Amino acid sequence: MEKLVLDIESISRLATRQTSVKEFATVLEQLDVYSGKIREKLKEPNLPQLHRDSLREIQKCISQIIKENQQTSKQEDNLPQSQEKEEQRERAIGQTIIKAGEVRFQDIAGLDVVKSLLHEAVILPVQYPHLFTGKVKPWKSILLYGPPGTGKSTIAHAVSTEANCTFYSLSSSDLLSSWFGESEKLIKELFSQARSNPRAIIFIDEIDSICRKRSSKEEETTRRIKNELLKQMDGFSRTSTSASPSDEPKKHLFVLCATNCPWELDTAFLRRFSKRIYIPLPDANSRKQLFRIHLKDVEMSIDDSDYDQLVDKTDGYSGSDISNCISEAVMEPIRELRDCSTWKWNDSKMSLSPTIKSDASAISLRLENIPREKVQPRKLNTKDLFHSISLNKKTVSQEETVRFQQFTEDFGQNG
């Protein structure tokens, strides 16, 4: 626990709420222990009067804080929120909104089954609402799970673009507000604002951080956040499926969550999801697509046959792992510029690029003697990529993959 010095000034400041609530909450957890130590100290017969008066003043402040906190807790729901607090939550919610149109299904390598499932769950109900009546209802809550770096957040963003939905994207850390008691209100207002849209998706990443299985060690704050989230998800689903008045268009509201640890989720929370879809590591074809997507704007000397070798060397790599390999590889031609001493003039680009010393048109120059705008690195080649792959190992173990597959057999669906 964070250590906090309690003196007259700091306690008085806390009593008047002139502090961050994180600090205030920390003090509240220590008050009983601290108050007991004061009482013991005051029993000492030889305690100087000045210290005795100071301790009594501190104890008076502690009593005031406890009394005010108890009154605030009882009346909090009935009191109007300050404009500042409301503006803070509005800004926080506004920051979760991501503009549509940035990512589409075509930008994502592989995951054809996942795309098909999400098309059925989100896009079809939005485009053909008259088909989803009576017993035919779309899935309103979907869990995307799988190893880190497999594109769960990206595909959630893409489905919002394809369905033209307002997309609210946040992680569990966003919900753990630094202001005491604000997390539940933030969740409530986030869902309320989403309901004001004709079509909206709320995406919560790393959901396992706040919705783990219940335990005696679970913090009260986390428990309250979890309960509020469950309550809002239930209400969200009812709002989405309930019939609208004839003169109002039907609302399309969806909740998507993502996790790398689905087995850690609370059972009650897991039941809330109509679909639990596994986002696996990319297969060979998907890895080839990933290389092509990431390298499409890179100047390189790579043949089609080279892609097969790259695919073979990245078996078991996630999409994020492959992205890291490419980021490392494209830096290699730039690193070589530092020590290059022979250059070749390129008429078409009006620039100088590194070349070998035996080149008849080679020019001897140091990098610092060339105008910066005239410097052009060589093209990327397969050697750069192979070297980068050898340095950047895969981050998902075989044991983890097996565990995801077992969870899918028991509770999920292959994507």
From TrEMBL:
Positions with biased composition (Polar residues): 69-82
GO process terms (BP): endosomal transport; vacuole organization
Pfam families: AAA, AAA_lid_3, Vps4_C
Domain of life, per lineage: Eukaryota
UniProt key word Isomerase: no
GO MF term list: ATP binding; ATP hydrolysis activity
Domain AAA+ ATPase, chain residue ranges per copy: 138-283
SMART domains with a match to the protein in the record: AAA
Start and end residues of each stretch annotated as Disordered: 69-90
Keyword terms: ATP-binding, Nucleotide-binding
Entry-linked PANTHER family: AAA DOMAIN-CONTAINING, VACUOLAR PROTEIN SORTING-ASSOCIATED PROTEIN 4B
Family: Belongs to the AAA ATPase family.
Protein name: AAA+ ATPase domain-containing protein
Native organism: Clytia hemisphaerica
Organismal lineage: Eukaryota, Metazoa, Cnidaria, Hydrozoa, Hydroidolina
